[in-house]
Write a structure and sequence with these properties.
- It is a single chain.
- The chain contains five helices and ten strands.
- By secondary structure, the protein is α+β, with helices and mostly antiparallel strands.
- The longest helix has 13 residues.
């Protein structure tokens, strides 16, 4: 059977989500706990490869095992009691054998948050970016709107392979202000490594007058220009929502 686990976590203490030797990661924590309850080594598939300090309100892992001698509710309870407090297990459910937390994801929403008031709240520093001076919001919006649609995002990412497909579609971009917090959202099916952080970084570069609208349009065609890419700070980024096919499953236990 294939088991899907959905969780939320604070990324402050993690070196990303993908398992790494001698470093704490989300995948590593789950595989250690799952190996204990199953009594054998468990390998998981993760929905997204996130950087260290990046947060998630909706993150997923899947793995295949023979039908275990315990209920999904028991597994859910065990994970909640075993994992540290910076991970919260939202749901545990059974999926079809072909299901993959990575490849079965229909789309994702990423949220980037900026403290854009004159005063900064240090209690929010673990999930926001705090510029020294308030940013011109109309300039951020002007740049962000350019990213919607199909473009070559090679210049806004770090491709992991030379032949990696960099022509992708951003389905939507939104920016709203909640109090003094600017909330920037990108939604799409696939994102390249560091893409969202580079997109936000380019918005910041446009706000500072470093990149013009014409420069961004050139970059979106896949062409390079003399420009040092800006990668927005990781803690401001949150994987907010994953979308999967929600057809009825053999078993489903959502105990949130």
């Amino acid at each position: 059977m294939t088991i899907l686990i959905r969780c939320a976590f604070s990324g402050a203490a993690f070196f990303g989500t993908q398992k790494q030797p001698q470093k704490r990661t989300v995948q590593g924590d789950f595989e250690e706990a799952l190996s204990i309850i199953h009594g054998k080594k468990i390998k998981t598939v993760i929905s997204s490869r996130l950087d260290g300090k990046v947060n998630a309100l909706d993150f997923a892992l899947s793995y295949e095992v023979p039908k275990p001698p315990f209920s999904l509710s028991h597994l859910h309870y065990f994970l909640r009691r075993t994992l540290k407090k910076d991970i919260f297990v939202r749901s545990v459910e059974e999926r079809e054998e072909s299901f993959s937390a990575r490849f079965s994801c229909l789309k994702k929403t990423y949220l980037y948050q900026i403290q854009n008031g004159k005063e900064k709240n240090p209690l929010l520093n673990s999930f926001t970016f705090s510029p020294i001076h308030p940013l011109k919001e109309e300039k951020l919006l002007e740049a962000g709107r350019l990213f919607v649609g199909q473009h070559d995002f090679r210049q806004f990412a770090t491709p992991e392979k030379e032949d990696e497909n960099t022509i992708l579609t951003v389905d939507s971009f939104e920016m709203e202000k909640v109090g003094d917090i600017l909330q920037i959202r990108f939604q799409g099916k696939n994102f390249l490594r560091y893409q969202v952080r580079f997109l936000v970084g380019s918005m910041l570069a446009h706000e500072k007058g470093i990149l013009s609208i014409e420069d961004i349009e050139t970059l979106l065609s896949g062409k390079a220009i003399p420009f040092r890419k800006i990668k927005a700070e990781p803690q401001g980024l949150t994987l907010e929502k994953l979308f999967f096919d929600d057809r009825p499953n053999p078993q489903k236990e959502n105990l949130l």
